[in-house]
Design brief:
Layout: H1 12-27, H2 29-34, H3 49-68, H4 77-99, H5 112-118, H6 128-138, H7 141-157, H8 164-178, H9 183-189, H10 200-228, H11 240-251, H12 257-282, H13 288-297, E1 302-303, H14 306-327, E2 338-342, E3 350-353, E4 363-367, E5 376-377, H15 382-388, H16 393-402, H17 409-413, H18 418-434, H19 441-465, H20 481-491, H21 496-508, H22 514-534, H23 540-548, H24 555-561
Parallel strand pairs: 2-4
Antiparallel strand pairs: 1-5, 3-4
């Protein structure tokens, strides 16, 4: 990787990659807002079958143009990684489109049902002009959701109907978004352009837009119940063939699914044993559940409301940026700002959104407060702040974004692999434990509670969707939704509403949930391979910098790029 002090001149490969970003942003304006690409915030994505075909065709054209480049177009190692990463990512996109996977799906997250609503969380809303952009996009919500409904019907017609359980949950979500006084009404009611009430014309546009968006979600809820649910499939599992494709998508690597499943079972047992040891430190003689109850009851570890919890997250995040930036990581100045916010949704999740390309929108850590939660415990989420912030997602995503001197736009904004990104975030938690920042037994228990959940995901996700044998603790036989719930109840210590949501997530989004723990496993394996190869010359800070400099490529591309021949 060239030195950061010597900006690299763009190559033909870079130009092709950047052109792909521009073309993709035009075809998927919602994704463009998510990745911080300018110019499309008043547009909406076409989620109809025609829109899906257009995006797949773009991937095919870019791949063909990539193959048509002359051999000398690959000028250096940076180009070589770009070519390998684009072949892998776009090749999978084409393969999935050919298999009919990814279009006309409904789950409890990460489909157009959620994306259309969530994009408004990321839009700038400081000025009247910015609120006018919001109004224009609100007016387009009906077209976006109508196209999505068309794709859902087409999937049913083509023999790829979504699962009944997911359709019901999706209809409930759509109805919630359609509710009077809900998200869209609250969004426009909070409009304060330039710190003042909006003018009459803008206020009217916003109110019309909110009403249109609510009506569109009500129409979607009806379509799900009346058109899709009667044709929905009863089975939750997608089957091994499709699962293998989805696993490659999320990992950017091909793994032995049976071996990974067996490893997941072993990992759960190892983590449970460590939790028992930490429980003994919290209260001698206590089991894990009693130790967790002790932590929950500790007033020193509780905060009275969401505002106090957000302030605590911000303080801890600011401390991590300062502490790790001194010795362990290169934290560029633009990344030293990370905003902690309350999310508009109520799933209970904590998640991260990255900075815009020009860095005017900072990275943000969002906490989604579940209904009825009035107090908050810090012991469980200390590790989560490290996962979402520094050295986790904020450092990883932001590091790639600021490397415009080396990386093209595709590498900075679109080369996302969950195995790399989520695997890095779990590796970051492990690293903070190695550095002594999770030595407090409560904070350590919090890390282990998250870790055993992620390991449990490996077991239930692969086991269910690939039809593997369930362990004796849930009755053996073939995995089903009830056995998944029983296993999660035994090993996941989150509150029941969160577990219910997670249960639906694993049943409906095959391959994604294991990418966290499997990604961490592959990151740790890579670190030890490089350490063994370099011996006494191994430098951990340099290892991190080299890996992060690549951007969130697939894990097979990462390993190849970090090998001596790269």
């Amino acid at each position: 990787m060239p030195d950061a002090t010597a900006p690299r001149q763009p190559s033909a490969v870079d130009e092709l990659a950047d052109a792909h970003v521009d073309a993709y942003a035009a075809l998927d304006p919602v994704a463009a807002t998510g990745m911080g690409a300018p110019g499309h915030d008043d547009e909406m994505t076409d989620y109809s079958p025609a829109g899906d075909v257009a995006r797949a065709d773009l991937a095919r054209r870019t791949l063909a143009a990539l193959e048509a480049l002359p051999a000398d177009a690959v000028r250096d190692d940076v180009d070589a990684v770009t070519v390998a990463a684009m072949r892998e990512r776009l090749g999978l996109e084409v393969e999935m489109a050919g298999a009919g996977v990814g279009s006309g799906e409904v789950t409890v997250l990460a489909t157009p049902l959620q994306d259309v609503r969530e994009v408004f969380d990321l839009m700038p809303v400081a000025t009247a002009d910015e609120w006018a952009v919001v109004a224009r996009r609100l007016a387009l919500v009906p077209d976006a959701l109508a196209g999505y409904a068309t794709s859902l019907r087409a999937a049913c017609d083509g023999g790829r109907a979504p699962a009944r359980r997911q359709v019901r949950a999706g209809a409930e979500q759509a109805a919630e978004f359609a509710g009077a006084g809900g998200f869209f009404d609250a969004l426009v009611a909070g409009a304060r352009p330039d710190g003042a009430a909006p003018g009459d014309a803008l206020a009217a546009d916003l109110e019309r837009g909110a009403a249109a968006a609510r009506g569109a979600y009500a129409d979607l809820a009806r379509a799900l119940v009346e058109d899709v649910l009667p044709r929905a499939r009863e089975e939750d599992a997608c089957g091994r063939e499709e699962y293998a494709l989805r696993s490659r998508l999320f990992l950017g690597a091909e793994v032995d699914l049976e071996e990974t499943y067996a490893w997941g079972l072993e990992e759960v047992a190892l983590i449970e044993a460590e939790m028992a040891r930490v429980a003994e430190r919290i209260r001698p003689g206590a089991g894990v559940e009693e130790a967790i109850a002790v932590l929950d009851a500790d007033p020193a570890r509780r905060l009275p409301d969401a505002a106090a919890f957000t302030a605590w997250m911000q303080r801890l995040s600011d401390w991590a940026v300062e502490e790790l930036g001194r010795e362990h990581f290169d934290v560029p100045a633009p990344l030293r700002r990370l905003e902690c916010r309350i999310a508009p949704s109520a799933s209970g999740a904590i998640y991260y959104t990255g900075p815009s390309e020009d860095l005017s929108r900072p990275g943000r850590m969002w906490f989604s407060v579940p209904p009825g939660q009035t107090s908050f415990s810090t012991w469980l989420d200390t590790t989560t702040v490290f996962h979402e912030g520094v050295p986790g997602h904020h450092l990883q995503v932001g590091h790639a974004m600021v490397r415009s001197d080396v990386l093209n736009r595709w590498r900075r904004t679109m080369a996302w692999s969950s195995g790399y990104g989520e695997g890095w975030a779990l590796y970051a938690e492990r690293l903070m434990a190695e550095l002594g920042h999770l030595d407090d037994p409560g904070d350590r228990m919090g890390m282990l509670v998250g870790s055993v959940l992620r390991a449990s995901r490996v077991v239930v996700d692969i086991g269910l969707h690939c039809g593997l044998a369930a362990p004796a603790e849930v009755g053996g036989g073939t995995w089903d939704a009830d056995k998944v719930w029983a296993y999660l109840t035994a090993h996941a210590r989150q509150d029941e509403p969160v577990r219910r949501f997670e249960h639906l997530r694993y049943l409906g989004w095959p391959g994604q949930a294991p990418s966290y723990k499997v990604g961490e496993r592959l990151w740790l394996q890579l670190r030890e391979e490089v350490r063994a190869r370099e011996g006494e010359a191994f430098d951990l800070r340099a290892f991190h910098r080299r890996a992060l400099d690549l951007g969130a490529v697939g894990l097979d591309v990462l390993r190849a790029a970090m090998s001596p021949a790269a």
